[in-house]
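ok trying this again, last paste got cut off
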Amino acid sequence: MQYIYFDYAAATPLDAHVRQAMEPYFSEEFYNPSATYAPAKAVRAQLSEARARIAHYLGVKGDELLFTAGGTEANNIAISGVMQQYPDNSCLISALEHESVRQTARQYDHKTLPVQEDGRVDTKTLDSHITDNTVLITCAYADSELGVIQPMAEIARRIREVRKDRRQRGVSLPLYLHTDASQAANYLDMHVDKLGVDFLTLNGGKIYGPKQSGALYIRRPIVLEPLIRGGGQERNIRSGTENVAFAVGLSVALDITQRLRTDEAARLHELQQYLFAELELLDVDITINGSREHRLVNNIHVTIAGQHNERLLLELEQKGILAAAGSACSANKKQEASTTLQAIGKTVEQAQSSIRITTGRSTNRGDIDAFLHALTDLLSRKQ
């Protein structure tokens, strides 16, 4: 069976140009970048070029970037790298964070920043959740389940005001802002000064790069506690021989996706709006979850009253449609309702009646129509 894929938020296929760029570093250019002979120095230069390519799109210096094995590791480094230095203090995470943020924060004193019914942080009440004990705030640029885009610049502006107030009162504790931009990098501007963040996570597996490739931006002169100790690579935070092939692959993937993002966003937005409109015409109780205005263009998340998502997704798969109930990293938690949907006010029953459709570069109008036909057929049989 040939499947139609609607789970691009979980994983993207490797771009052919990315694969081609990576290939030399698996064989001919296999040298350790830390070695002192000429071929190794040439590989190290390619690693620096990859770092500079990513830095260009973030508007930062290359030495502010740390290569990681994916977004999960980058999130862990950002949170634990701060919290291990301030073990008596607290972090604040938004209610829509990925499990790699949620699980890491649970190791420390932490609080959850609530969101509104549309999934967006209410910046007007943000200050009330920040105490003199808060050292780190983490808020995904766009979450992996609903695709809701957060007002990062306004969040950063509020945080600057809190910092100013602390200085005036003689409170010396720093206050950092981290954002997980894993889902956002395909379609949004990544310039960190516009976002106002101190840390930013990238994930190659979400942008048509290799899985287990990622990067963490760390604003100078912030210093993080090392998580992996050894030879001092990657600013002495993540020691170990660098994975040059994956670093190059990540950089090429980001370069391609950022050059394509305007046209691709317009194309997918048209498909998204078409699907929204067609779903609303169905003779079924369907609710679109999350903000429709502030949303990634490839995300369609709906609650279909009276349906159980696991059963519906299996039936769709049997018809050649691959979709999801939410984040793939949480999919193995059987029978548990989505914490993201509960955070925006959905009941457990509603959460278990919700599915997520995420589109990508290969998605076309015919794929959308095929999904609509399959869904309509399945729902009509159950009435």
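PB: full thing came through this time. The longest helix spans residues 244-281.
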